[in-house]
Input
Amino acid sequence: MAKFYQQSLAERHATLIAEQRLTAAQIEQLKAAAIIAPEVADSMIENQIGQFPLPLGLAFNFLIDETSYVVPMVTEEPSVIAASSNAAKIVQANGGFTTTIQERAMIGQLIFTDVSDYEAAILVVQEKEAALIEIANAAQPSLVKRGGGLRRIETRIITDDDHQPAYFTVHLVVDVQEAMGANMMNTILEATATPLKEWLDSAVLMQILSNFADTSLVTATCRIEPHTLTTTRFEGEWLAKRIAEATRYAHLDPYRAATHNKGIMNGVDAVVLASGNDTRAIEAGAHAFAVRDGRYRGLSDWKVAENGDLVGQLTLPLPVGSVGGAISVLPLAQLTQQILGISTANKLARVIVSVGLAQNLAALKALVSEGIQKGHMSLQVKSLALSAGATESELPLVVAALLENKQLNLENAHTIIAQLRQK
Output
């Protein structure tokens, strides 16, 4: 029999059954979960046996740069979308989010070894800059035609643990326009590596884009009057001070900072995934940015202004695209783009960073007041009841019983369902 990767989808399914890894009924379950054409899925990954859908929902109330958005989010975690929408509603009542983009570009790295004179190498790159730009842009003429291309060249000397020069790195900063840009960057790096190797008389260790895209920084800010934070139990001014204090702590303690930033990325990843962009790249860049000064810190900043307003800010590297890759292949990515009502990478990045700031506000507000568990509870209990096999008609009864006796585990859920069915 052909190797697994050489088999058709039907043959792979037959192999799984023959090897008793899955039953015929489970194979049918895989088939039923498919939402894109099997041949499309097969072209995207290796050894494809099916698809793994995740819930797609909508977050409301987002007013960003005076424009209203309904934001598609893909996530499996309860309360993320509700929390984001609730926080966005508070910000909306205070004028919405304001965003800024300094630049949108990707960084490609050419890493050289065996450089004998680092200062001389820097001079060579400076002297050859015009030639390198010409070579790079000739490698991607369609990108240049759309207004993109190599913008500038930077050099870095990377030192070892003893602070001695170890590698010479050339950064190519490329405007990739509306694409995520990985393939474009690889083509440009390949084109420029050969002449640079000759000019520097050095070996190339590797040529690869960097996911620490600090040339694609996007910032969202908002200003909140304290009274709009007030709940039935807590005064807004008290909450504003507590949120600012919680942020300060996240800047000092990396153990808290990791969870603080995970909460931000709950929202960011959900929008990135829904848009067909690369969540792993965005995650890597965000966490690298969090430790850019040598200490891992919270990514957001909340402070109480002199007039008592709560002022929030979040800056993230967001080299997202609006075309190419999975965006152009996955029908649902195109559908979510339509719901969002945008077609440019810049606007998508503005929405993503705003969602991240909203998610952070919601988490901090809950943590310093009611506690995070209360917001999670309802959906978590529903998930538990469904996992135990509750039907649609049984679900509200099982949820109510679980909440009443507070024993939130699968065994208790099974017991409650069995008792319901005996009546």
Observations:
- The longest strand covers residues 149-159.
- The radius of gyration is 26 Å.
- The chain has 17 helices and ten strands.
